[in-house]
Amino acid sequence: MASGGAAFLERLKSNLERNNLVSVKDILTLALSLLVWLEELLSREVSPTIPNYCRGILHLTTDCAVITFLVGAVSAVPHAAIKRQVSQLRSHYDFIVAGGGTSGLTVADRLSEAFPNKSVLVVEYGDIEYAPGIFDPPLAVWGGVGASASYFIVQSLPIPDVKNKTSFVLAGKVVGGSSAINGMFFDRPSRQDLDAWASVASPQLDSSRNRWSWSGLYPFFKKSVTFTAPPAAVAQIYGYTWDASVYGGSTPIHSSFPAFLWADHNLVRGAWADMDIPALQECASGDKSGLCWIPISQHPVTARRSHAGLGHYAAVNTTRPNYDLIVKHQVTRVVYPNGPQSGPPLVEIRSLANNQHVNITADAEVVISAGAFHTPAILQRSGIGRAALLNTAGISVTVDLPGVGSNFQDHSGPGISWAYTNPGNFSPLPSSMSNPAFLADAVAGFDETPARGPYTLANSNSAIFIPLSNISTESQTIINRIKGIVADGSAASYLPADYRDDATMVAGYSKQLAMIAKLLSDPRVPSLESTFATGTSVRAVHLHPLSRGTIRLNLTDTLQQPIVSYGTGSNPIDFDIYLAHLKYLRAMINTTTLREYGAVEVSPGNATQTDTALLEYIKDQLVLSFMHPCCTAAMLPRQHGGVVGTDLKIHGVTGLRVVDMSILPFLPSSHLSSVAYAVGEKAAGRIIQDWS
After folding, report:
1. Does 671 qualify as catalytic in the annotation?
2. What does residue 283 show for φ and ψ, rounded to 5 degrees?
3. Radius of gyration of the chain (CA)
4. Which residue ranges make up each domain of the chain?
5. Catalytic residue selected from 329, 411, 628, 640
6. Is 316 marked as a binding-site residue?
7. Measured between alpha carbons, how far is 512 from 200 in angstroms, rounded to an integer?
8. Which of 196, 214, 227, 437 has a CA-to-CA distance to 208 between 20 and 30 Å?
């Protein structure tokens, strides 16, 4: 190792160990991520200046001499796994993973580790990129849109029940998937959510070793992330609380609390306390009815985004000659030349550079991990889906599975805002970034080891999770309405038209609604989420929506983005829940804490009081997607519209599994990043068992 690089790593190691913040393994992970990033640049003959390397990689140091060492060290990498052309691939692989996102890279990492003599290929549509955090330099406006890794922009059709508005969703188009572009909020579901997943699959899919309950997934939540507690001084300043016993992983996927909060952060926490919302020590243990501190997916020292592209690829690829990744290629379909029981299938991939199509052979099995939008598109192009749709598209039917691309869900919700007539003298606030001296210090703090200041922030660290029974005196009426449409059979009328007459889809939807009614009846299960970081507005996230949409092939060009139809509001009981959530949040403005500063409601506004007026406001202002798409290849029995079993194998074919957020039967009371990692870990464990 060059002496300059060795000296730098030794200085970094000494600094980090002195602050008791990081292990030697973390240092090696960071160094490897630098090497992979540089290898990628050099492979494209990009020649940025040395200072730009220092600003663009991980901001580990202001001593740019180390970068010279790293550039030289690229040639010493023993095995460059990044592939850009099919000609660089092996003749066949044991395992092929379609999609280098959060779950897919988790599976590939674990399989290549467990089976050093078996080969693993990941096929990724995007490329390897630096993935900035939510608020990284040079961005100077917190909450704005800054630099990002690449993503798909998925636009929906007009949504009839919300005045024909359209929704858009971002999905990661990069090695690391949506973990490389998301809001970095790193919470877990309630235990009751996951127990409900197991119940809707029961009894047909019961299996002791495949149980997708809280007890079945909790060990994988723990394994999937390394949590680092904040320094005592930081915890004392901001009041952070946690329970280290609910973590315990050693995976280089990191979560931590930032070393900075805006000065008005505790103002809304105080208002929520006035509303008798209990402050919980920890919300990652499965019990999250109350006010929570939520960590974010960032490294505890550098405060850079921690994502699957680093933790499950950069940290391991140079040491595993059996682990290949090809970028800028699309998995178009899987092919069963001798019928659906002859698996594993061939994997057809397309070069984005020259449109060349090639079949790749898998000897063991194929894992589809392309996400809630693109997994059903791959399956439908493969002849796996609703037969009527496939016939219309001119695609031969491999297996008739109407659940593929159905059951689509996302979190949504309205919000409120207010103004202060007697604002406090809070500082610093996001407006402080307009002060050149403050901004310069913020940038300098981001480059320190450990990082400090406002650039260590993501979107939010505080959130409330409130059960419906604590929100509205009308909760039982709402729950009875859900039970009623299941009992009288009218639930089917609220499904998308192209499958409301399918008995299997109706049976599955009715079972889901019955389970959601049970969850909403439980005083431990959140119905509402609201987050806060700074400012004068909050949103009410509807955690268990009843409406369903679809993901369907674009029949004009099946290789392009699928057609997304949100069903937002198609089940009218969702509007009862939006209304209850909105009324509950409005009570914040009349709390003692906010009245002290003269808080007055701006929206919906005091003139908007009747339920009719509030419903119009909701339809006008509803956030249609909080970027949590799921459930389009659901883990349900086939006779209930399911696509995969609890082993994640697709019904009716062999050698093919799905491992991503499309397998959820319905949304949990959480964001999906931590869930995607845990699902990947559990799936990998099952695959390893099967092939051991």
Report:
1. yes
2. -120, 10
3. 25
4. 1-77
5. 628
6. no
7. 7
8. 227
